[in-house]
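Human: Note token order:
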Amino acid sequence: MGQLVYEQKSTFDIEDRSLAHLRIVVMNKLRRQESFMLQVPHREVGHVSLWMAPGIPVAFQFSGSRSPRIDRDLVDEWMQQASGSDGLSLTSRAQ
């Protein structure tokens, strides 16, 4: 189980495989200067919506020693969702 660290103060537990795919999506969106909404699970409140934008520090901390296998179709699907009006939601996926 890895963690997404948002603004150096909030952490969100995300399974390493999902986190690896999310890292690619975030990297590509922010490289293009494209902000988007990301909904992630939160152990205390259920879920949290985060505004992902250039200039907001984020970090991806992986617990496993091996890099997960990347599914290009999943990355494409998540990129499309992130570009949509509702943004990308990881809350409906198994973490």
In short: The two ends are 9 Å apart (CA to CA). The mean pLDDT is 92. The first strand starts at residue 2 and ends at 6. The chain has one domain: 2-89.
